[in-house]
Amino acid sequence: MNLSTLRKELEPYKDSKKADQSKRFFKTGIGEYGENEVFLGITAPVLRRLSKAYMTISVDDNLELLKSKYHEERLLALFILVLKFQKSKTETERIQIYESYIKNFKYVNNWDFVDSSAHHIVGAYLIDKDRQILRQWANSDDLWTKRIAMMSTFYFIKQNEFNTSLDIAKILLFDKHDLIHKAVGWMLREIGNRSINTEEEFLKKYYKKMPRTMLRYATEKFPEEKRQAYLKGAI
After folding, report:
1. How far is residue 187's CA from residue 215's CA, in Å, rounded to a whole number?
2. What are the Cα distances from residue 61, in Å, to 19, 23, 129, 198, 232?
3. Phi and psi of 70, rounded to 5°?
4. Is residue 201 packed enough to be buried (19+ CB in 10 Å), middle (13-18) or exposed (0-12)?
5. Sign of the CA dihedral 59, 65, 68, 71?
6. pTM for the predicted model, two decimal places
7. Residue 216 to residue 112: CA distance in whole angstroms
8. Which residues is 70 bridged to in the sheet?
9. Which segments of 38-123 does DSSP mark as H helices, in order?
10. 162-195 pLDDT per residue, tens
11. Residue 41, Cβ density class (10 Å: 0-12 exposed, 13-18 middle, ≥19 buried)
12. Is the CB of residue 201 less than 8 Å from the CB of residue 192?
């Protein structure tokens, strides 16, 4: 199996109407985060199925796919990279995949790319290692690097490890972009799903300062009375 064969398999799934919908959904207007993004109109379930069939394509082919101008091809490349990481049998393989991923951040440049790969690769790799690199990324000027820093911690949260996520949340607390507000709020909510006391300890310190969207995401699963109390600053 090679890249040429894979691209031929993508052909029947292209849909111009869905591509137009994606252009609106992913904010591709001038000055928006997805400006100049090009779509094929292929759905994520199709890409996930193909990623399983083609996960053995070469590293070079997968890297070429990741550098594609087409959104769906880059997403497919990331799905494959995640599978390669999860199926890797040695630390050397995991290091190679992790390093390949972080060297190519500029192609991981949309929220669906970040959210479907960062915790599976970066989080999984760093689970038993020093995590200072995440704090460096959280202080980046690049939107997607910051989101990768936050979303990578989802893997730790799933292991009931919350401190790194809370540290990154503090760094990003006053970020100006709503895609960071959403990511931070989402991870706080995930912490709350596992330890409501941990989430509320953080919120009680910072909820009056944090952006409204972040707070809404963080309290989404709260009982309505408590949620409204937070939103009204009445805790």
Report:
1. 11
2. 24, 26, 29, 44, 52
3. -90, 130
4. exposed
5. negative
6. 0.95
7. 20
8. 38
9. 44-53, 59-66, 71-87, 91-103, 111-115, 118
10. 999 999 999 999 999 999 999 999 999 999 999 9
11. middle
12. no
Instruction: Give the span between the Cα atoms of 97 and 84, in whole angstroms.
Output: 8
Contacts of 213 (CB under 8 A, 6+ apart): 178, 181, 182, 185
Report which of 84, 73, 66, 63 is spatially closest to residue 6, judged by C-alpha positions: 73
d(CA 121, CA 209): 32
Altogether, the residues listed in the chain come to a count of 235
DSSP string, 192-230: HHH-HHHHHHHHHHHTTTS-HHHHHHHTTTS-HHHHHHH
Q: Which tens digits make up the pLDDT trace of 93-124?
A: 999 999 999 999 999 999 999 999 999 999 99
162 Cβ neighbours under 8 A, 6+ residues apart: 156, 191, 194, 195, 198
Under DSSP, the state recorded for 42 is -
Per-residue tokens: 234: 């009445």
